[in-house]
């Protein structure tokens, strides 16, 4: 006869479920907290009144002691039932019992010492003010509450690079960062205009938002370029979402048309334009063919 062993099932994994914070639940919690706070203050004033009466007569000291003990026990029981698995349970319980125990000690002292004693009046004043200000019961409830969950880490902001040009990558990681001179911007259409000169388009990475005011002084410090060699202006025919960046002094154009327009035409042939240039040896004339 073969006896099969019962299969051992693996325990199910624990699942943490977070209930949504509904507005109605939050409103009820706020109202409960208001009622609880008002009840605590009312009990404090009642205890102060009982101790004040005890300064003159001890007829009500027994009833006041019984009421203090009953309220303290009921409060501690409700506290432990409300948060049965909270941390720092012993500390919270002792803290919750401090007002009732100190009031009971004051009532017993008033019963033992006959007549009105200044020390008893001072102790009553200290107990009343200390309980109203420190509010040990509320502090005990907070001790039993679990610590707040850590805030989720914000995802790292990756700089936006619109092209693989080294200048665009440098701009994205140096200028376009949160605390940089030009946040939420990108560099594109980069063109070299000289040995140490370039021009490019600064574009806003937020649709519908203009390019922010970029400090030329900050760019000069980051690039180690004189301020008068950096110019930021509008792009002809475009809106405020793009700006034209010019860095350095562009090299002079030495093409034939430029040389003609700048050096020859003004002196020799005004109001003329060089349209084409032919290079090479001229063709042989009729006299040279024979």
TrEMBL record:
Bilayer-crossing regions: 39-57, 63-82, 89-109
Q: Which UniProt keywords apply?
A: Membrane, Transmembrane, Transmembrane helix
Renumbered to this chain, region (Disordered) spans 270-290
Q: What is this protein called?
A: Uncharacterized protein
């Amino acid at each position: 006869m073969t006896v099969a062993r019962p299969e051992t099932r693996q325990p199910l994994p624990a699942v943490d479920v977070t209930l949504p914070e509904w507005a109605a639940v939050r409103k009820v919690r706020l109202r409960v907290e208001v009622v609880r706070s008002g009840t605590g203050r009312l009990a404090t004033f009642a205890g102060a009144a009982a101790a004040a009466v005890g300064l003159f007569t001890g007829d009500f000291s027994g009833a006041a002691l019984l009421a203090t003990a009953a309220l303290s026990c009921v409060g501690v029981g409700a506290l432990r039932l409300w948060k049965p698995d909270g941390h720092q349970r012993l500390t919270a319980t002792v803290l919750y019992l401090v007002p009732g125990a100190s009031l009971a000690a004051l009532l017993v002292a008033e019963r033992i010492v006959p007549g009105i004693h200044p020390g008893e009046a001072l102790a009553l004043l200290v107990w009343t003010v200390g309980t109203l200000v420190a509010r040990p019961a509320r502090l005990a409830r907070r001790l039993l509450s679990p610590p707040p969950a850590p805030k989720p880490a914000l995802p790292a902001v990756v700089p936006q690079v619109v092209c693989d040009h080294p200048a665009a990558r440098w701009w994205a990681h140096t200028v376009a960062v949160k605390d940089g001179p030009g946040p939420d911007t990108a560099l594109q259409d980069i063109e070299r205009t000289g040995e140490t000169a370039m021009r490019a388009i600064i574009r806003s990475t937020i649709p519908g938002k203009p390019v922010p005011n970029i400090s030329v002084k900050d760019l000069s410090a980051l690039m180690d370029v004189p301020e008068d060699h950096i110019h930021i202006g509008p792009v002809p025919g475009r809106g405020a979402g793009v700006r034209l960046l010019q860095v350095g002094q562009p090299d002079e154009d030495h093409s034939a048309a430029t040389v003609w327009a700048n050096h020859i035409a003004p002196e020799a042939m005004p109001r003329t334009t060089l349209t084409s240039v032919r290079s090479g040896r001229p063709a042989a004339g009729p006299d040279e063919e024979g």
